[in-house]
Amino acid sequence: MKTLKDKIVQEGKVLSDIVLKVDSFLNHQIDPQLMKEIGEEFAARFKNAGITKILTIESSGIAPAVMTGLILDVPVVFARKRKSVTLSDDLYTASVYSYTKKETNDIAVSIDYIDSDDTVLIIDDFLANGQALLGLLNIVKQAGASTAGAGIVIEKGFQPGGDLIRENGTRVESLAIVSSLKHGKVDFLEEAVE
Ligand code: G4P
Ligand code: NA
Ligand code: NA
């Protein structure tokens, strides 16, 4: 998605060979116009997938997820993060280890908001090691629902998450795939079709 890549080049800050800071439009301040375009792009890519629900994770997944839900006209659910969640009949839960933050969070979704007849599109802001996405996929599975795939705003293609999830057989649509952050520069994996 060209507008997104341009925005990353203009405003993204390369903090290290592995971390890209995008606080000015995605992780702290949010650019609503860009989020709308992102929602339109995800909606277009998944328009024939029979999506009935969008699932994301707080906090930075919510903005692109809501814009996608608005266009697909389906509800948006966000998993809540907690230090630890007591097992409960009312919640689907999963444990998510963050390699970036070196910490484990439990994530939880009320059983009220995903049904076995749902077809779920998962949306998130970043795909790095894939642990958050695996946790969300696990929650969809616990609900007995099906997953149409995942829409990711920025995938770091040099980290293992994307391959891991695709090898699992899950469709992953990333709007920008960063191939390298070396030498303070953002390189993108060029996609065949755009
Ligand atoms: P993983 O789920 O793919 O395994 O990712 P990881 O644990 O490595 O990432 C943990 C957090 O860091 C996530 O945000 C993720 O979106 C974010 N993240 C990972 N790599 C980058 C990066 O290069 N740049 C930025 N800006 N974020 C990155 P979170 O803790 O869930 O926070 P929130 O922003 O959703 O509140
Ligand atoms: Na994030
Ligand atoms: Na996130």
TrEMBL record:
Enzyme type, top EC level: transferase
MF-aspect GO terms: xanthine phosphoribosyltransferase activity
Entries under Pfam families matching the protein: Pribosyltran
Residues reported to bind xanthine: L20, N27, K156
Signal peptide: none
Annotated Gene Ontology cellular component terms: cytoplasm
Recorded metabolic or biological pathway in which this protein acts: Purine metabolism; XMP biosynthesis via salvage pathway; XMP from xanthine: step 1/1
Protein keywords: Cytoplasm, Glycosyltransferase, Purine salvage, Transferase
Catalytic reaction equation(s): XMP + diphosphate = xanthine + 5-phospho-alpha-D-ribose 1-diphosphate
Location of this chain's protein in the cell: Cytoplasm
Coarse class of the protein's main subcellular location: cytoplasm
E.C. number(s) listed in UniProt: 2.4.2.22
UniProt superkingdom: Bacteria
Keyword Glycosyltransferase among record annotations: yes
Residues engaged in binding 5-phospho-alpha-D-ribose 1-diphosphate: A128, N129, G130, Q131, A132
Domain Phosphoribosyltransferase, residue spans: 33-157
UniProt keyword annotation of Glycosyltransferase present: yes
GO biological process per UniProt: purine ribonucleoside salvage; xanthine metabolic process; XMP salvage
NCBIfam families associated with the record: PRK09219.1 (NF006671), XPRTase (TIGR01744)
Chain's role: Converts the preformed base xanthine, a product of nucleic acid breakdown, to xanthosine 5'-monophosphate (XMP), so it can be reused for RNA or DNA synthesis.
Subunit structure: Homodimer.
Recorded family membership: Belongs to the purine/pyrimidine phosphoribosyltransferase family. Xpt subfamily.
HAMAP family: XPRTase
UniProt protein name: Xanthine phosphoribosyltransferase
Protein species of origin: Virgibacillus phasianinus
